Amino acid sequence: MTADEIRGIAQGSAPVPLSVLDLVTVGAGRTASDALRTSVALSRLAESRGFHRYWVAEHHSMPGVASSSPAVILAHLAAHTERIRLGSGGVMLPNHAPLVIAEQFGTLEAMAPGRIDLGLGRAPGTDGATAAALRRTERLHEGADDFPEQLAELTRFLDDDFPDGHRYRRIHAVPGPIQATSPGGVQSPHRPPIWLLGSSGFSARLAGVLGLPFAFAHHFSAQNTIPALDLYRESFRPSEVLDAPYALIGVSALATDDEKEARRQVLAASLNMVRLRTGRPGLVPTPEEAEAYEFSPMEREFIDSWNSNVIHGTPDEVRSGLDDLHKRTGADELMITSHAHSGEVRLRSYELIADAYGLTTA
To answer: How far, rounded to the nearest angstrom, does the alpha carbon of residue 201 sit from its chain's CA centroid?
Structure first.
């Protein structure tokens, strides 16, 4: 694993590498199969237009988000792409045994050598009751508090370097380095780079201290973006992975052919978020349903605040918003997530953003 497997190269006139975060959203009247077909089409579009990486995020118990199994989805996308980096944005590590994640991502690395990223978060990716069902415990705080220890265990499984005397010294994640030391063994030189994900300062500081790349969830925690990035950079210590900080931020952005249509699509995504935040998660509604919905004053206040951090409009407007965000944050990479009822609208958005930056067509 080298810094070259982490750092991207800006394409066209983009100020930094552009990437994709896919929640595999399911719209009303659509199925999970439809959403996954969109993901395949979007991953291929992203690859052909020069986006650097394509991540999927672990969520649970949300009807409108079909990304509960990142490793399964990534295996499917690996079979339909050739060059683009694929990864998790992220796997919520406290939901899983570290050995299981090491095995899953070792398998993905064997499927797509040199193309896999392992992004890790410490939140559950769901509500407390669902997290308890996933973790089979009611002591949920322990998962977050133990995250550094879980991360260290996962890293040792990936590197197969538990010290002598450790209770896991004779346990090996396969596929993995143990295969290179077996008689006749040959092992891939690649190991999935670990990224730490966060929406506050905890993972920012941890990523800095460990010298790991950091991904910040600006798309739902914009008020913490600059403080977290500053903390990451101030805490950073060079490592075998990176000699300097590397931070990407997740950005909610939607480009359409005209500004009015962008507002319609964003309103539908806003209604979906209102329902999620009030304990009524569902499929992403149509723009028509959102236009007919009577928002309460409190709901209207919420969506006005939420949408202030959603870059939307014509391609030129979105490009200007992304450029401004990059200047304000100094992010090394922008990872764009587009929320809309229709897969076609999402695909068109990424195509328009690629066009706005002059990204080439492979």
So the answer is: 18
